[in-house]
Structure formats: structure tokens, C-alpha cells
Amino acid sequence: MSVLSGGRVWRAICYSEARAGTPAEEEIMVGNQLANEPSPFKRTGRWTDKPRSYPALSADIRSIAALGRIVKSAGYSEAAIREARGAQIMQSHNSADSPRHPKRLAVPTPLSTLIKLFALRAVVREEEARAAFFPLPVEEVEEMGLVESRLEGIQSCVGLSEFDGLLLAHDPHHENVNDFGSEYVPGINPTSVTLAGVTVRQPVHRALDLGTGCGLQALLAARHSERVIAVDANPRALNYAAFNAGLNGLTNIECRRGDLFGPVTDCRFDLIACNLPCVISPESRRAFHHSGLAGDTISEGIVRATPAYLSKGGFASILCNWTHARDEHWSSPVQNWVEGAGCDAWLLRHDTHDPLTYAALWIRNRNTIEYERTLQRWVGYYQRLGIEAISAGVLTLRRQTPRLNWFRADELPVGSGTLQPWKN
Ligand SMILES: C[S@@+](CC[C@H](N)C(=O)[O-])C[C@H]1O[C@@H](n2cnc3c(N)ncnc32)[C@H](O)[C@@H]1O
């Protein structure tokens, strides 16, 4: 089935889960699949600094793939961005000192133009943009929703990151992503990288990326899986994920919108990667970091639910935050969650903090009065729930039945890059 939208076709390969046996390939328009939902591109809340309606990342799949090839062949990569910025200045995409970066990139080459556009969000001259996107007309890139024409020149509407050879479009960097509620789609962050590193990489039939965001885990899994389902509650996230699949020429990712495992209730997976918002906080709104659920409910719920979605021998890696008593071993609660689940379990701890330190680490970039109020609120919340310590890490499960399962807890090695700790 191919669906038209505004005269443009946005095709992705969709495998119908309803049909068993040989997967039926269907062409679907991801945006249209969500057509009955409120438009993901109508901004709500505090999108005050956006010049126009949010990008509708829809276009001909061939043009998207062509754009991906153009950007990659220009040499656009995190290393190139780092070098262009200067090795020491690696902070945010729009830090206060960003005006100095375009000076470093004064000589226009396709690469420097792309970095200015997508990493620094600088306005570039139209001729520069034309040269950088050639042979794709800049008008086509604008139609995709990636850039827009302004009086002063061309500016990007999205951020563009590179990870392990993959290009990922996402919302531009903002210091306080949680101010944007559940609609905001950030790029790659340290937790994404941790999950990517721990995920077991072996050829599999079917993989799930739960809480896909801009699709990083799904795209990585698509390289060694026949089929990947990317689930997110946020339709804007799915739009980015589908677009990014096209940008990297990947055709085996299906995007499904819904709550947690809701869109995949009848499926079993050989691989699950899960990075849902699991920060423990009093924030009641679902947002990038916050589930809106009390304490560590989201982490416990996902860990307890996951084994039922794993096929025999299947692996799941789940980022978690959990609470425990000060004098209790940090791994105890998670060990309880997996008790009797029919899975071997390896918990890798990233860190443990007292509530005040944990809160201080998450509450950032606010003015002093707001910071203090928020800190009080968070700490008061931990006191009310009797929370003494909070740990963070990643749990990997392997479904193995019927035999005695084991549980092991270790420290997550720092800076180790890709981990492949599982041996049969
Ligand atoms: C921390 S981001 C993960 C992004 C990406 N997986 C990565 O590793 O970089 C969490 C994502 O989970 C999604 N999400 C939050 N609550 C959800 C829910 N109840 N069901 C499905 N997705 C949810 C958010 O919309 C967001 O895109």
C-alpha cells in the first residue's frame, strides 16, 4: 500500500505483524499511519523560538536517501564537528559561545556549510547551501522540513548528529529539554551511547527499540536484524525515526506509536533495546527524562514485563534508575524484579547517589531561585517516598529456559566503548 500526502510519497517498509510466516512487505507512509492523531508538527507549549511550524519531515524516500549520501560523502561526522569547533569546546549545539564557531569555518566547503547549518544552527548564504546540497535542490531540502529560507539566508530547523556512521536528525539542542514536555525529540546523549554499547550485537530475526526517540537504537539494530520495530508514544519521535531510517538507506524498520509494549503485544523479539524516561523525580508530566510515574515504577514495570516479549535465547538491554536503602546492596531491588523471570540477568551499575546529589545532577540550567525551588521539591519528594539512595545502570536479560538462571551485578566500565560481555 502506498499512501500519498501532499503529492509526495513517503515510503517505509512495513512488516505486518498480524500476518504470521513470511513477512508481508507493505509500503506505508509513517506520517499517514498517524494521520488520525493530532498533528505532530503543530507545536504546543513553549516552542517560542521556532520561526515557523515544526518540520514535517516528509519527502520522497529517494530524495531522503540521496540527502543522506550527500551529507555523508561531505564528511559530516561527530569527529569533523568536534574538530571544527575546536577539541576543547564540545559542549552543546547552541552554547553561548557558538557565534565564534562560524569564524573557524569561514572558508565555505560543503562540509563547513553543513556543520554551520546542522551543528551550529548558523544562517548560511543561499549559494553556500546550494553548493552543500548539490545535486539536491535546496528547495527540496526545505520541503523535507530540514532547512528554511530566511531573509538573511538558509537556516536549519533540525539538529543533525552522526553516530557510528549513522546520520540522525532530531530537534535542535535546547538546554532544558524537559521544558518541552513529551513532544521534544532530542539527539544522542550519554545514555543512548551506553545502551548502544551494551546491546548485544549478533544477527537476529526480530528486534524492538522501545522508546525509540529519533531512532538511534532501531537504526543500529537494523544493521544486524532482519526486522526492527521502533515504538514511541510521541508521534514526532516516530517521524524522525522513520526519516532517519530513510536517511541511512535502511528499509527494515517499522515505526509504531503507543504506550510501552502496547503496540507489540503479540510479538516476541530476539533483541530488545529500551531507553525509556526513567529519571526518578516528582515531575508528573511525561517528558524526555520523566515517565510521570512514581519512584522507580517505570524501571520495575519494564524489567518485569520484558521477559514475556523475548524469544528463547533473546537478549534485552534496559536502562534503569532504581531506589534502595542506604545500607542495602545496590543490586538487590533489581535482583528481586527478575526473580523467577526465566532469564539470566547482568546488571551493570553506572552510579549510585544520595537523593540530594541525584537531584542536583538532573536539575540544570535554571536560575538560582528556580533551581532552589525545584531542588526543594525533588528532595521533599524523595523524603516522602522514603528514598535513601538511587542507582542507575543497564540491565541485560537473556531468556533461557528451562534451566537455573543466574544474576550478576558489576560496575559498568567507564569509557570502554562497545561492550560485548555475553558468551554462550
Ligand atoms: C530517553 S528517550 C530515548 C531515545 C533513544 N531510544 C535513545 O536511546 O537515544 C525516551 C523516549 O521514550 C519515549 N517514551 C516515553 N514514555 C513512553 C511510553 N510510555 N511508551 C513509549 N514511549 C515512551 C519518549 O517519547 C522518548 O522518545
Write the topology of this structure.
Layout: E1 4-5, E2 8-9, E3 12-15, E4 25-28, H1 30-33, H2 61-73, H3 78-85, H4 101-104, H5 110-118, H6 126-133, H7 138-143, E5 147-150, E6 153-156, E7 159-163, E8 166-170, H8 190-198, E9 204-210, H9 216-222, E10 225-232, H10 235-247, E11 253-257, E12 269-274, H11 297-305, E13 310-324, H12 332-338, E14 343-353, H13 355-362, H14 368-385, E15 389-399, E16 407-411
Parallel strand pairs: 9-10, 9-12, 10-11, 12-13, 14-16
Antiparallel strand pairs: 1-2, 3-4, 5-6, 7-8, 13-15, 14-15
Sum up the structure in keywords.
eight-stranded mixed beta sheet, binds S-adenosylmethionine, globular, two-stranded antiparallel sheet, 29% helix, 424 residues, Rossmann fold, alpha/beta
**CATH superfamily label of the largest domain:** Vaccinia Virus protein VP39
| Stretches with pLDDT under 50, minimum 5 residues | 1-55, 88-94
Bound molecules: S-adenosylmethionine
Rg over C-alpha atoms, rounded to the nearest angstrom: 22 Å
CATH topology name of the largest domain: Rossmann fold
Shape: globular
| Total strands | 16
Task: Give the strand line-up of the largest sheet.
Answer: 11-10-9-12-13-15-14-16
CATH class category of the largest domain: Alpha Beta
